[in-house]
Write a structure and sequence with these properties.
With 197 residues, the protein is an alpha+beta fold. The chain has helices at residues 3-16, 34-39, 41-51, 55-58, 80-88, 138-152, 167-177, and strands at 20-22, 27-31, 67-69, 75-77, 94-99, 108-116, 121-128, 157-163, 181-182, 188-194. It binds coenzyme A (COA). Coenzyme A binds next to β7, α6 and α7.
């Protein structure tokens, strides 16, 4: 990778890594940085441990969540500490912490993964981890915020996928991305949104 390409990836990261607010709902998305993680360490770890041990959440996510990919392509489960530390210092993904005015603690996250300045693409994932805040239209608003933010920051393509049984996710993705396509193993529906049109 040349120095110029590295810089443009860095520039895209800087543009994307800013706080996003929705005035109407009061929802705030705060990018996880190393400094933010250190300042809020205990509460972030305990919230994400709770989210990732809730079957209502994990049944729709990768079975090893939280996990990482090794150099040989295999996947291993990791601790929440490592998950958050890795996200806070990643050069191709950003984890936005979701804050809602009715809770002092974070209620979930929006992740942008596989951010690639050359293709102008990224994949989004949303987790409303706090059970009391699920199915109240928050995932829909966060999804809309992610699209506006991605477009403003210069991304061209946003992707997402959902397990074929995840009706809440599919409802929001179909509304925001259009019709998805079923994966060959029929387990997932993949969505792509052209942010330039
Ligand atoms: C999927 C998820 C992000 C959706 O966010 P949410 O805030 O809970 O959902 P919303 O209220 O925005 O939207 C739910 C939509 O699904 C529908 N829905 C489907 N199943 C539902 C259920 N069990 N209860 C309530 N609504 C449901 C709603 O009717 C609504 O559609 P509508 O606006 O057309 O009426 C959230 O539920 C979540 O984090 N789930 C666990 C983790 C997960 O699945 N993440 C996504 C991985 S792809």
């Amino acid at each position: 990778m040349t120095r110029k390409e590295q810089l443009s990836q860095a520039e895209l990261l800087i543009k994307l890594k800013t706080e996003i607010r929705n005035e109407q709902s009061g929802i705030k998305l705060v990018p996880l940085t190393q400094g933010f993680l250190m300042t809020n360490y205990e509460s972030l770890i305990s919230q994400w441990e709770k989210f990732f041990s809730d079957k209502e959440v994990t049944k729709h996510l990768h079975p090893l969540t939280p996990f990482k990919k090794l150099g040989d392509g295999s996947e291993v489960k990791i601790l929440v500490e490592e998950f958050l530390a890795t996200k806070s210092s990643s050069s191709d993904s950003i984890l936005f912490i979701i804050y809602h005015p009715d809770s002092t603690l974070p209620i979930g996250h929006l992740s942008l993964n596989g951010i690639n300045s050359q293709s102008g693409s990224a994949s989004r994932g949303i987790v409303i981890g706090e059970a009391d805040f699920r199915y109240k239209g928050i995932g829909k608003i966060v999804g809309q915020m992610s699209i506006e933010h991605a477009r403003k920051s210069g991304l061209k393509i946003l992707k997402a996928s959902a397990h074929s049984g995840n009706s809440a996710s599919i409802a929001n993705l179909t509304r925001q991305f259009g019709t998805g396509s079923l994966s060959t193993d029929q387990k997932e529906i993949n969505f792509t949104l052209d942010l330039t049109s």
